């Protein structure tokens, strides 16, 4: 796609990056077939191709409007279009640039500003945990819309105390320890059973995705640098004392940390470190091939019907498919994915379900309908946002797949 950048963008990093992405687009429209918002709304401007044209117009000097902002806001950034695109268009990076440029030109209503500020400052804040605890204490008195965002209190279980020569860093995350602490402790217990010690750097916090995708890109980058600083001593420690990998049990965080190298590529002080951090980062499912032989015999498989919902950040953002089903199956679990629209987003998409609830709940119910057709005893996923969003619409238990593996490990013990 030919683009003639306006003078104000011609020599900027954002303009040059966007132009390189746009050049790959042949506007074939294959992406519209797998775009969730296009499926729901049927509007060209609510599909990737239409949004690409909107961003192109802005880069060529056309003044964006509130309508431009709305169409970009409606994008889930599920990156399904990247999986579909035959030309390798990096749409996720492009829409981040587009949103940033549009927000710099188009003022938002006060209510929107306040809500977005509360999300980007509140979710990564140390105050989130006590606020969640308070919400859980009065959960029964909350309106249904808030109850959906406040899961019942969950016990984390014990953290392993053994030490091992093999060590992996784990990002605890910002909301996960408060909302579903058992995911982290279950991860540590499973890795411990396979002879791997889980290390958590106390000064590491939010991966940066919340602020970055709410157009506070400077704030997001500051959180990324903080994490790199917290992890770097463990990375540099060397063989025997250092870590061999950074393991992510939230696919939304994983896709972001894997892109630290790209996001900070122009940062002279952090570019090399960021690239190394991204190289070391693996989704938890990527560790399964070596966990499986180590755990076989220690895990008691289950005859329960398990439906796996692969998050978009796993199957599209990280391009990881099939691993969870394959390796849990080898350990005796009955895991299946739906054959109906398995590629479509569940509607959680980070803060999307708060900012665009009508579309988010349509997608949730559509996803739960397909999962429900399999009559599962439990639904599992790989990202806390998907787990809490899906659970808000079904009585079927929704868990992280590592929790199911941990439960089977404990039964065998």
- Mean pLDDT rating: 94
User: How many helices?
Assistant: 24
Radius of gyration: 21 Å
Q: Which regions have little confidence, pLDDT < 50, spanning 5+ residues? A: none
Query: Shape, please?
Result: globular
Arrangement of strands in the largest sheet: 2-1-3-4
Total number of β-strand segments? 8
Biggest beta-sheet profile: 4 strands, parallel
Question: Which structural class is indicated by helix and strand composition?
Answer: alpha/beta
Tell me what portion of residues adopts beta-strand conformation: 5-15%
The end-to-end span amounts to 59 Å
Please give the share of residues in helix: 40-55%
List the helices and strands and how they pair.
Blueprint: H1 7-10, H2 13-24, H3 36-41, H4 48-59, H5 66-73, H6 80-84, H7 91-105, H8 110-122, H9 128-137, H10 144-147, E1 166-170, H11 176-179, H12 182-193, E2 196-199, H13 209-213, H14 217-236, E3 245-248, H15 251-257, H16 260-263, H17 271-280, E4 281-283, H18 288-295, E5 305-308, H19 312-317, H20 323-330, E6 334-336, H21 352-355, H22 357-372, E7 378-381, H23 384-391, E8 398-400, H24 401-412
Parallel strand pairs: 1-2, 1-3, 3-4, 5-6, 5-7, 7-8
Helix pairs in contact: 2-7, 4-7, 5-7, 12-24
């Amino acid at each position: 796609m030919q683009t003639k950048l306006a003078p104000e963008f011609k020599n900027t990093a954002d303009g040059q990056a966007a132009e390189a992405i746009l050049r790959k687009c042949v506007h074939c429209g294959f992406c519209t077939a797998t775009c969730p918002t296009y499926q729901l709304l049927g509007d060209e401007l609510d599909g990737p191709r239409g949004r690409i044209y909107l961003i192109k117009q802005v880069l060529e000097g056309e003044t964006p409007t509130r309508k431009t902002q709305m169409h970009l806001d409606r994008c889930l950034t599920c990156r399904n279009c990247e999986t579909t695109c035959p030309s390798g268009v990096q749409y996720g990076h492009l829409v981040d640039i587009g949103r940033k440029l549009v927000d710099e030109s188009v003022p938002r209503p006060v209510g929107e500003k306040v809500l977005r500020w509360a999300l980007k400052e509140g979710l990564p804040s140390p105050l989130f945990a006590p606020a969640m605890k308070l919400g859980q204490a009065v959960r029964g008195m909350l309106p249904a819309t808030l109850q959906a965002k406040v899961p019942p209190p969950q016990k984390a279980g014990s953290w392993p105390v053994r030490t091992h020569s093999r060590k992996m860093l784990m990002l605890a995350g910002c909301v996960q320890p408060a909302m579903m602490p058992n995911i982290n402790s279950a991860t540590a217990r499973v890795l411990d059973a396979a002879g791997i010690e889980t290390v958590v750097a106390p000064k590491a916090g939010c991966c940066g995705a919340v602020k970055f995708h709410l157009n506070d890109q400077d704030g997001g980058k500051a959180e990324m640098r903080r994490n790199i600083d917290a992890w770097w001593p463990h990375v540099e420690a060397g063989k025997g004392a250092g870590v061999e990998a950074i393991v992510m049990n939230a696919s939304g965080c994983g896709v972001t940390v894997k892109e630290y190298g790209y996001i900070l590529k122009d940062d002279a002080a952090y570019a090399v470190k960021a690239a190394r951090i991204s190289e070391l980062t693996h989704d938890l499912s990527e560790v399964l091939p070596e966990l499986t032989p180590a755990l076989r015999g220690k895990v008691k498989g289950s005859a329960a019907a398990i439906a796996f919902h692969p998050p978009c950040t796993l199957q599209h953002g990280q391009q990881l498919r099939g691993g969870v089903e394959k390796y849990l199956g080898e350990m005796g679990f009955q895991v299946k994915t739906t054959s109906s629209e398995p590629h479509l987003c569940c509607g959680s998409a980070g803060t999307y379900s708060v900012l665009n609830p009508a579309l988010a709940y349509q997608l949730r119910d559509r996803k739960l309908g397909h999962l429900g057709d399999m009559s599962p005893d439990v639904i599992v996923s790989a990202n806390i946002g998907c787990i809490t969003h899906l659970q808000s619409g079904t009585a079927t238990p929704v868990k992280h797949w590592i929790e199911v593996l941990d439960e089977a490990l404990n039964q065998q013990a």
